[in-house]
UniProtKB/TrEMBL annotation:
UniProt lineage: Bacteria, Pseudomonadati, Pseudomonadota, Betaproteobacteria, Burkholderiales
Alphabetized InterPro entries for the sequence: G6P_Isomerase (IPR001672), G6P_Isomerase_C (IPR023096), Phosphoglucose_isomerase_CS (IPR018189), SIS_dom_sf (IPR046348), SIS_PGI_1 (IPR035476), SIS_PGI_2 (IPR035482)
Protein name: Glucose-6-phosphate isomerase
Active site: E341 (proton donor), H372, K508
Enzyme superclass (EC): isomerase
Length: 540
């Protein structure tokens, strides 16, 4: 058994399979020859239905990928993760975000501590909602990366479960253009600030927190202790900063996996304790699926294996995510951190340089907006970029009467667009087909053959479609957990540590060195480019 997929003997089998039939695989032909393809390649996981049939895979490909997973000991590595082994070996830490969503009384590690922390956080959130901490109309959440993206994405996605009289604002960037417009519309008396930072050392967050505190006092705020709370695993630093109410968590909760912990406080304030528990329950259901479903039916495993197939055999370097729900518009940004910070690594667990690709670029935009921006490239560009569509069957517009009917019709349009895009990517259009069509906006003088080549589509472009019945706290929890586990699967097979992020350190250190020079303008000893830019930015 080997733990790194490219060192497994199955890797060579997959390479041979790719050369023999994978490279030339045509999804259209696969549908023609197999009437049962959709049934065979669509899967049910808790809250999520997945159609994998528009991918460049078939039963032999999946069988080999599953053999690879087993040869790399994926199940044992998953079990080690869930058991709380120190799988983040460069920091000597367990990785136990799954324990945060295990129900009370379960035998998950640290269950008693987790439940106590959850109860306290939810009680606080509900006290804010009930007005027991004064009449709070606005909550400003200050954090960045994992202390921002998850809560911000979830609050937006669950807007239908929120309250109009309680607004949530998220400030992350050290750029004052983020904080200033938020503060401009607020009344200090009715504002609660949540300072979220796992380490409580992050430059951006501390700077924004200081500025917010200064604004609060200048704006007539009197009770800092009541209007500022912190969520952090470094509650001592929060206290030193002057915040009395701090909700703590543990070093075994990674920043990008922390929305389930007290970092989720703004979610709980926005949607209430019961809905927060539903979010956890959805994630827990997916955890159980990941922990126990046979690999052949295990959705995070299957998605991860297809990712490996595309990244390392087809050589696709990017994946686009297109959620067809406006509430999920921040999901691509959230997934960027989840996947790229986790799996953007170049050495294996033993520190050996990898000679295969790891994390793809993950990017995207809500549908249908993306269609009018970059989908042109997805359809006709020279790179093949697998697309992940997310469709939500039942909308929740919160409208009534004629508006409700209009919006229901718009929802059908939204779904039709979603289906049409994956269909078009797969189907394509030959030049011969294009030649037979009328194109009213085309040049009347251009040679028709030339024009038909401009109007043809290669097709055979792969996509996955995930379907949620409705966007609810429970289904969202399951969806996020699905992505978390999929990222674990690819990282485990690549033999990397998905749970550290040393790659962000160098820039932080250099920033600290440059900061005083931004004031003094001193460029001595810097490389030519940095010196030139510094002088340009600091010249009177
Ligand atoms: O960007 C690096 C990082 O450490 C992320 O991993 C983390 O989510 C973010 O900074 C914020 O860190 P903290 O929660 O400690 O402020």
């Amino acid at each position: 058994m080997t733990s790194r997929c490219d060192l497994s003997p199955v890797w060579a089998e997959l390479q041979a399979h790719y050369a023999a039939s994978g490279r030339g695989f045509d999804i259209r032909d696969a549908f023609k020859t197999d009437a049962g393809r959709f049934g065979a390649l669509s899967f049910e996981a808790p809250e999520v239905f997945a159609d994998l049939s528009k991918n460049r895979i078939d039963a032999p490909t999946l069988a080999l990928l599953l053999k690879l997973a087993r040869d790399c000991g994926l199940e044992a590595r998953r079990d080690a993760l869930l058991r709380g082994d120190p799988v983040n070996h460069t920091e000597g830490r367990a990785v136990l975000h799954t324990t945060l969503r295990a129900p009370a009384g379960s035998d998950a590690p640290f269950n008693a501590e987790v439940q106590a922390s959850l109860d306290a956080m939810l009680a606080f959130a509900d006290s804010v909602r009930r007005g027991e901490r004064g009449q709070i109309t606005d909550v400003v959440h200050i954090g960045i990366g994992g202390s921002d993206l998850g809560p911000a994405m979830v609050v937006q996605a669950l807007q239908a479960f929120g309250r109009r009289d309680l607004k949530l604002h998220f400030v992350s960037n050290v750029d004052g253009h983020d904080l200033a417009p938020v503060l401009a519309g607020l009344d200090a008396k009715h504002t609660l600030f949540v300072i979220a930072s796992k380490t409580f050392t992050t430059q951006e967050t501390l700077a924004n927190a200081q500025a917010a505190k200064a604004w609060f006092l200048a704006a007539g705020g009197t009770d800092v202790a009541r209007h500022f709370v912190a969520t952090s695993s470094n509650t001592a630093a929060a206290a030193a900063f002057g915040i009395d109410t701090a909700f703590g968590f543990w070093d075994w909760v990674g920043g990008r996996y922390s929305l389930w912990s007290v970092i989720g406080l703004p979610i709980a304030v926005a949607v209430g304790a019961d809905n927060f528990r539903e979010l956890l329950a959805g994630a827990h259901a997916m955890d159980q699926h990941f922990a126990s479903a046979p690999l052949e039916q295990n959705l995070p495993v299957l998605l991860g294996l297809i990712d490996i197939w595309y990244r390392n055999f087809h050589g696709f370097t990017s994946r686009s995510v297109a959620p067809y729900h406006q509430g999920l518009r921040r999901l691509p940004a959230y997934l960027q951190q989840l996947e790229m910070e986790s799996n953007g690594k170049g050495v294996d667990l033993d520190g050996n340089a990898l000679s295969i690709g790891t994390s793809p670029v993950v990017w995207g935009e809500a549908g249908t907006n993306g269609q009018h921006a970059y989908f042109q490239m997805l359809h006709q560009g020279t790179d093949v970029i697998p697309v992940e569509f997310i469709a939500v069957k039942r909308p929740n517009h919160g409208a009534s009467g004629e508006l409700a009917e209009k919006l229901a019709d718009q929802h059908r349009k939204l779904l039709a667009n979603c289906l049409a895009q994956s269909q078009a990517l797969m189907q394509g259009k030959t030049a011969a087909e294009a030649l037979t069509e009328k194109a009213p906006t085309a040049s009347a003088t251009l040679d028709r053959d030339v024009l038909s080549r401009h109007r043809s589509f290669p097709g055979n472009r792969p996509s996955t479609t995930l379907v949620l019945d409705a966007l609810t706290p429970r289904s969202l929890g399951a969806l996020i957990a699905l992505y978390e586990h999929r990222v674990f699967v690819t990282g485990a097979l690549w033999g990397i540590n998905s749970f550290d992020q040393w790659g962000v350190e160098l820039g932080k250190a250099l920033c600290n060195q440059l900061l005083p020079r931004l004031e003094s303008g001193d460029a001595a000893g810097l490389d030519g480019s940095t010196a030139g830019l510094l002088q340009r930015l600091t010249a009177a």
